[in-house]
Write a structure and sequence with these properties.
- It is a single chain.
- The chain is mainly α.
- It is built from three helices and two strands, in the order H-H-E-E-H.
- Strands 1-2 form a two-stranded antiparallel ribbon.
């Protein structure tokens, strides 16, 4: 049943409050946090105008069994690209320790100069 017309919704219609969207996928617990990080990574790539074709399933497969090793310490894991000028996809994306990521970042910057 659609929502009735009200002053705040003069056209009426739409989904009633409390009824979930039938197309929405609900991710429980830790999976919701992982999904949030995936969406955040995708949005940041879009902001930097980088091609991002890594799917949610590929992202999950890459992090399987490693998610708890992420962090900000030098020996924690992070996701980066092998070829920094290439797209974010399953063939160009790797998971490395942050210290290694910083080394690769310096190499890339030096090569650009």
């Amino acid at each position: 049943m659609a929502n009735p017309k009200t002053p705040s919704n003069p056209k009426g219609g739409g989904r009633p409050k409390g009824v979930p969207c039938p197309n929405a996928v609900i991710y429980p617990g830790i999976l919701a946090k992982i999904r949030f990080k995936y969406c955040q990574m995708k949005a940041q790539a879009k902001f930097r105008k980088e091609e991002f074709t890594l799917t949610w399933d590929e992202f999950q497969a890459m992090w399987a069994g490693k998610w708890h090793l992420r962090g900000r310490e030098s020996n924690s894991l992070c996701m980066t690209r092998s070829d920094w000028d290439g797209p974010w996809d399953s063939t160009n994306t790797i998971i490395v320790e942050r210290l290694e990521h910083l080394r690769l970042q310096v190499e890339h910057r030096m090569a650009k100069k």
